[in-house]
Amino acid sequence: MAGVSGCMKYSMFIFNFFFWVCGSVILGVSVWIRVSKDAQQELEIDNSLFAGVDLLIAVGSIIMVLGFLGCCGAIKESRCMLLLFFIGLLLILILQITGGILGAVYRSQIETSLNKTLQSSVNSLQSSTEEAKAFQEKFQKFERMNECCGLLNGPADWGKNFNSGTGSNKICQCQLEDLSPNRCFMFQGRYVYKEPCGNVIAEYLKDHMLIIMGIAFGLAIIEIVGMGFSMSLYCQIQKK
Q1: What is the mean predicted confidence (pLDDT) over 44-52?
Q2: Burial of residue 82, with CB atoms counted within 10 A of its CB: 0-12 exposed, 13-18 middle, 19 or more buried
Q3: Mean pLDDT of 170-176
Q4: The pTM of the whole model exceeds 0.85
Q5: How far is CA 224 from CA 82, 93, 108, in A?
Q6: Does the pLDDT of residue 1 top 50, yes or no?
Q7: 79 CB burial (10 A radius; 0-12, 13-18, 19+)
Q8: How many angstroms separate the CA atoms of 105 and 27, rounded?
């Protein structure tokens, strides 16, 4: 009866060892960010981003478990572990494909949801609560960095708070060297940036969707290779 290929066995082990290391790094960094106040301050992470950090913790844990199953399944020639590894990768691949299909089908609903979120943020720009003021301060930095103003309707989104800035930190204030008609226009007696920040955010999301799709495609190839290795090794062990 045919034996187990040593090349495939150790290739499977090395493949999953790096898989496990990646999962460990993701999990370790995510947990550190989640529990360390210093890390949160250094990276400017607030409560609104904790959901993303929690997601990374879950992803890191899943990758670690799958890497462990793949490593042990290959070295110990365990059909059970290899089968669990294969099923885990298959489920992740199915979720990726489902997510891609749903993203394409519900694209208009996603855009509508984004507009609702932006509208909610517009209300925060016009509010005078302490929580809203903290948001406004961060958003002004975003405006200066991206040379935009407001979210949906330009400077009008600031309402009565438009003139609350002082000195060089006036809201939406155009820099002297940027006073071009394509970038700035006159509003309530001073030059402000013309483009709403909602457009900047939408463009950012569109540009990075290509990166996300590329990463997802690359991960899908790695998952298919891993599934091929595990099933081939599984069949060889069965025939041994």
Answers
A1: 63
A2: buried
A3: 78
A4: no
A5: 14, 8, 31
A6: no
A7: middle
A8: 32
